[in-house]
Design goal:
The protein is of the alpha/beta class and about 650 residues long. Helix content is about 50%, strand content about 15%. It has helices at about 5-15, 25-35, 40-55, 60-70, 75-85, 95-110, 115-135, 140-150, 155-175, 180-195, 200-215, 220-240, 245-250, 280-290, 305-315, 330-335, 345-355, 370-390, 415-420, 430-440, 460-465, 485-500, 525-540, 580-590, 600-610, and strands at about 255-260, 295-300, 320-325, 360, 395-400, 430, 465-475, 510-515, 515-520, 555-570, 575-580, 595-600, 615-625, 630-640. Strands 7, 8, 9, 10, 11, 12, 13 and 14 form an eight-stranded mixed β-sheet that branches. Helix 4 runs parallel beside helix 6 (about 95-110) and helix 10 (about 180-195) runs parallel beside helix 12 (about 220-240). The longest helix is centred in the middle third of the chain and has 21 residues, at about 220-240. The chain is globular, with a radius of gyration of 27 Å. The two termini are about 50 Å apart.
Length: about 650
């Protein structure tokens, strides 16, 4: 049954329009639904629109702070919550508890993202907020968080006191809990409280009960709940000097895996590589490996042979199967699926895509014999798996079906394995040559086909293709400035950006400026990320003329990565790099929060695959992009910091 909140959500996502009849209570419910669906930007926009129509409301402030915290804007969330505390000093105890608990969470996040004394200071502010929240209504949530923060701050007596109260409160609330999420968090709270009280066996039983509620094959969103529980348990164990082994075994999450390997041999293939007779053995070994390694999430392409077998095995085990194609599925079938008129690979390909959790077409480009798109998709597969594993606080596994020899061309199985090894991923290799020998199959040792190469580039300005990092930036509120202010701001920000770009040896492929916006392209994914952060920091640390400190316009900045073509721009009378990926980068910048760098999932994946650890890309949610550009997963980019209290 459709509720008024559902109507608000659908209208807002489709039209960015708040129905005139929408009550503030229904707006609250709609914003909560958007946040739960990991669409915090839409929630922020909705709440901002509602605040202009309705009277001042504490719940709007709380939900806005929650959405800001979910996108990693902890300082903005803190400021909003502190203002809410001052503006609503006489609100009911339950509302004050909510505000203080959110404030405690924000300070905890700031503590875990800081070092040394600053981290310790934030940790004590978090403890203070949770302590104050616990005095309101005595709910289990502030009690257990106060206990954990007291433990991390070294206050053992307070930790035991709050843990005891959390245990009592959670057991009382357990009798009233109905929905799955509430029941899970109550059992997890009981586990954490008993762990803090030094009762490891009781804690293990409670944690096991929480995991059992989710059932086998829990979807990714539910698995992240277990990850959060395990993270807290590990922190407590490290402070107590306990072994985390039983914690990891009890709060086990599915492993993430990537797969690559040979396609099934064509009937007339001169050299045996993956004979059709070996298919059932490879499928059996893949199934055994998936079960033995507890793989529940997998990434691969969907070519006939290895890729399809991996997806079939994982899907049959109830796992999440993620397919990444280098280009459109119809063209992909012609290049990588169809074998003979009578084979069943096309039907199996379509069934794999139907059962997959998602299917990503890395580009919209048609196959043009450059092989660049295959390389791009291979890198995305690895990067996506690394991002998912990172979210689960793990590292990805890998399996390859290979005959141990070089491929017929670049970007084949041997090259992918070497790329994995450069990322620190050592794969399990299923050797098709050994399987063929065990089955006593005849070996075809004809002349190896000539190694495929990139098509000759007759006109680089028309056909050259590279995967690049794309930076877009503009100034918030530029159109509202006076003529003099716009002149001063444009001169200030353009000279600041230029100074950053000129300060490093690696020069961008493109650097262009239009009005209050700029467009920069780097061939190096890592260099693009570093320069985006450097630009953001340089703008944030300076102020244009005639603006007082804190009143200067702020920069919106986005990062994307994808294939771009080199072309000659007849209007500018120079070469540039452009393509659909550049347009998508501009759409991401349009929804970015000021003074923050956001990136696409593609950039985050390729940055992770590149192996650079200077920056972190933290998932913040899914966002509807302007100009019918669809819904994209976005990440916040910032300098990496230690996630420990030191």
């Amino acid at each position: 049954m459709t509720t008024p909140a559902d109507v608000i959500v659908s209208r807002w996502l489709a039209e960015r329009h708040l129905p005139p009849s929408a009550s503030i209570r229904h707006v609250h419910k709609a914003a909560e639904a958007l946040i739960k669906a990991r669409n915090p930007f839409a929630a922020l926009d909705l709440l901002d629109s509602a605040s202009k129509r309705h009277a001042a409301d504490l719940r709007i402030e709380q939900l806005a702070a929650l959405a800001l915290a979910n996108v990693g804007s902890y300082e903005a969330a803190r400021q909003r919550l502190e203002r809410a505390r001052q503006s609503y000093p006489n609100s009911p105890a339950s509302e004050q508890e909510e505000t203080l608990a959110l404030l405690g969470r924000v300070y905890k996040s700031l503590a875990l993202g800081s070092r040394g004394r600053e981290g310790e200071s934030f940790a004590r502010l978090s403890l203070k907020a949770y302590e104050q929240a616990s005095t309101m209504k005595g709910g289990f949530y502030p009690f257990i968080n106060a206990a954990a923060m007291a433990e991390l701050c070294g206050d053992k007596r307070a930790a035991l006191e709050f843990a005891s109260k959390a245990l009592t409160s959670a057991k009382r609330a357990r009798r009233r809990a109905r929905d799955l999420d509430s029941r899970y968090w109550l059992e997890a709270t009981i586990g954490e409280a008993t762990l803090l009280l030094g009762k490891e066996e009781d804690a293990q039983r409670a944690y096991a009960a929480a995991v059992a509620l989710l059932g086998a094959g829990a979807r990714h969103a539910k698995v992240t709940m277990v990850v959060a529980t395990r993270r807290n348990a590990r922190l407590i164990a490290s402070v107590r000097g306990l072994s985390p082994r039983w914690i990891d075994e009890t709060l086990r999450v599915p492993r993430v895996a990537i797969c690559c390997g040979h396609m099934i041999d064509m009937p007339d293939r001169a050299v045996t590589r993956f004979p059709v007779e070996a298919e059932h053995v490879v499928l059996s070994e893949l199934r055994e490996w998936i079960r033995g390694q507890h793989v529940g999430i997998g990434y691969a392409s969907a070519a006939c042979g290895t890729d399809t077998l991996f997806h079939e095995a994982l899907q049959d085990e109830g796992g999440e199967s993620h397919v990444v194609l280098p280009f459109g599925r119809e063209q992909f079938q012609l290049t990588s699926v169809f074998r003979t008129e009578r084979d069943r690979w096309p039907q199996r390909f379509r069934k794999v895509l139907e059962r997959a959790s998602d299917v990503v077409e890395a580009t919209e480009e048609r196959f043009d014999d450059t092989l660049s798109l295959f390389e791009h998709a291979n890198r995305l597969i690895t990067g996506y798996a690394m991002l998912t594993a990172l979210e689960l606080e793990d590292s990805p596994l890998a399996v390859a079906v290979w005959n141990g020899e070089r491929g017929d061309g670049p970007h084949g199985t041997a090259d992918i394995i070497r790329a994995w090894q450069r990322c620190g991923i050592e794969p399990k290799v299923i050797r098709t040559d050994a399987i063929a020998t065990s089955l006593k199959l005849p070996k075809r040792r004809g002349k190896r086909p000539p190694q495929l190469r990139r098509a000759p580039v007759a006109s680089p300005s028309e056909t050259e293709l590279r995967t690049c990092a794309i930076i877009f930036g503009d100034i918030e509120g530029f159109s509202r400035l006076s003529d003099l202010q716009s002149f001063q701001v444009q001169r200030w920000y353009s000279s600041t950006v230029a100074a950053v770009l000129d300060s490093v040896a690696t020069k961008p492929l493109v650097r262009e400026s239009r009005g209050d916006g700029f467009y920069v392209v780097y061939e190096s994914i890592t260099e693009g990320g570093r320069q985006a952060i450097a630009i953001s920091e340089a703008i944030a640390s300076s102020t244009p003329p005639t603006f007082s400190e804190g009143k200067a316009p702020r920069l919106r900045l986005s990062l994307h990565a994808g294939p771009l073509f080199r072309l000659y721009d007849a209007i500018l009378q120079r070469e540039t790099w452009s393509g659909p990926s550049a347009s998508l980068g501009a759409r991401i910048e349009a929804v970015s929060l000021p003074s923050t760098v956001y990136c696409s999932r593609e950039f985050a994946a390729l940055y992770k695959e590149a192996g650079d650890g200077e920056l972190s890309c933290e998932y913040v949610g899914r966002f509807t992009l302007p100009k019918n550009s669809g819904v994209k997963s976005l990440y916040r980019v910032r300098r990496a910091t230690a996630k420990t209290l030191q």
